[in-house]
């Protein structure tokens, strides 16, 4: 990517999996970074750009509404107060006005940003993988047993965390203005194909629907099991035909 003029960038969620990659790349490109976590309420006195990466994949001590909607509203108010010139919101492929609470609240955050009066960019990644991801690495660990139960028939387009980071930074630097960009990897997988990729030779089997419902019921209490909402989303496609990554020449590694 071409070099941009140095900026002060407030990164909300900068200590998370994606956030750490973005902070490192921002600093490498000469920008000053202010890292902000969900628990902080102190306001910075100046920022050119805000990047909001805050999100949860299951409700724990916070609900989806609190982590997604309420926090985004607060951060938009911060952006207005600081008169930032760009607000970058990380959403997700599948965000919609109907569906699971995760999808609905992600859609609501997009609407909050669109109606904020600020110049904005929305980045919707598919399944993000990388050295410290919580999903593909868990798949690998289970697959090492030699067997893997498949819970749903959806398709995913796993995208490397560095690819997502580069798109978000390009958006922060002004290459995306007042629109959404979807980001997927170079390949689309069913879950069986994905498991064959991460652990060749693993034996996969489709669980009966009543067993999946039973597992998802207990997933509401045990974090090592998927929730009902996660099973619903796994049954949907998380893929895109957006060619932004290719047009910009951003490296987009295959899943290994």
**Beta-strand fraction estimate:** 15-25%
The residue-averaged pLDDT reads: 93
**CATH architecture type of the domain at 8-130 and 158-185 and 241-248:** 3-Layer(aba) Sandwich
- What is the H/E string? EHEEHEHEEHEEEHEEHEHHH
Which percent range fits the helix content?
A: 25-40%
Q: Estimate the global geometry from the Cα principal axes.
A: globular
CATH fold annotation of the domain at 8-130 and 158-185 and 241-248: Rossmann fold
What's the total number of strands?
A: 12
Which radius of gyration do the C-alpha atoms yield?
18 Å
The assigned structural class equals alpha/beta
Please count the helical segments: 9
The major sheet is characterized as:
6 strands, parallel
Question: Strands of the biggest beta sheet: in what spatial order?
Answer: 2-1-3-4-5-10
CATH superfamily of the domain at 8-130 and 158-185 and 241-248: NAD(P)-binding Rossmann-like Domain
CATH class of the domain at 8-130 and 158-185 and 241-248, named Alpha Beta
Task: Report how far the terminal alpha carbons are from each other.
Answer: 25 Å
Low-confidence regions = none
Please give a structural write-up:
Helix 1 crosses helix 5 (161-172) and helix 2 runs parallel beside helix 3 (101-114). The protein is globular. The chain has helices at residues 17-28, 64-82, 101-114, 136-143, 161-172, 191-198, 209-219, 228-234, 244-248; strands spanning 8-12, 32-36, 49-52, 86-90, 120-125, 128-129, 147-150, 155-156, 159-160, 179-183, 189-190, 203-206. The chain has a domain at 8-130 and 158-185 and 241-248: Rossmann fold (3-Layer(aba) Sandwich), CATH 3.40.50. A 6-stranded parallel sheet has the order 2-1-3-4-5-10, sandwiched between helices. A two-stranded parallel ribbon has the order 6-9. A two-stranded parallel ribbon has the order 7-12. The chain has 256 residues and is an alpha/beta fold. The longest helix is centred in the N-terminal third of the chain and has 19 residues, at 64-82. The protein starts with 7 loop residues before the first strand and ends in an 8-residue tail after the last helix. The protein is 38% helix and 18% strand. The model has no long low-confidence stretch (mean pLDDT 93).
